[in-house]
Please model this.
Amino acid sequence: MLMRDVLLATLTSVIWGLGFVVAKFGLESFSAMQMTALRFLIVSIFVFVVPRPRLPMSSLVAIGATLFTGQFLLLFLAFTHGMPPGLASVSQQIQAFFTVLLSGVFLRDIPGRRQIIGMVIAFVGLGLIASAVGTDLNFVGLGLAIAAAFSWAVGNVLVKHAPKVPMLSLVIWCSLVPPLPALLLSSVYDEHSTVEAVINASWPSIAAAVFYSGFLAIAVAYCAWGYLVQRYPAVSVAPFTLLTPCIGVVASKMIYGETFSPTRYAGMGLIMVGLAVIVLPLQRMKALIPIRWSR
Model:
């Protein structure tokens, strides 16, 4: 990977890592269904100025239903069933396993020896972080979170398989998919309508649901992520999301006071080592300078 794309993948993981904590602010005023609908409504407004990507409508619906609707609706439901932010940031990284597995089966994107070694090192670190999260685990919440991770992985593979299209237009047009099912579920299960929830919501909740979750986490981070998934093999891109729990647990500690132990520091260190093995060729690991910024 080019160093500029390594930095882009890192920034994407930082945005997502902070998003686990920010989402809790949004869910103080909105239900999981309302939160899902709002974050994508704000993005889908841009369909009036961004041309539709040259993909069949079935492909747009499939990507929107897995990468967006399934992932975030299930994740927000996991939060409402007691999943703490730190643990959620860890559990979602199971998608890396799912992504590599599905890519190998359906796209013949087989990982090499170096990628396998790096992923093993990184996932040992992930396991250390998971072991230090705490004992406040709700099995319903964990199951929903794992289902969200699988939906994310399916979306990754669909994006990888799709012809190369501008990622901004793909993200915006796929954002049309989540609001309808989310609002339908909200009308059935929520006590208050989405309009009432918006009127009565706090400013931190609105900022979390609309600006951060809608603009930064979707319009910015997912455009970058989709670009990387299309450009590089899944075994090189997917492991970058292992940085997300590092950011998530630190932010959760700072904001919510989640228990933080030296084990997590060790886990994050192993994740960084694993990522270095995966993304840096041997010659670059021996001599990082000069850095090549373009082909």
Summary: The longest helix spans residues 203-231. The two ends are 10 Å apart (CA to CA). DSSP finds 15 helices and no strands in the chain. The chain has a mean pLDDT of 83.
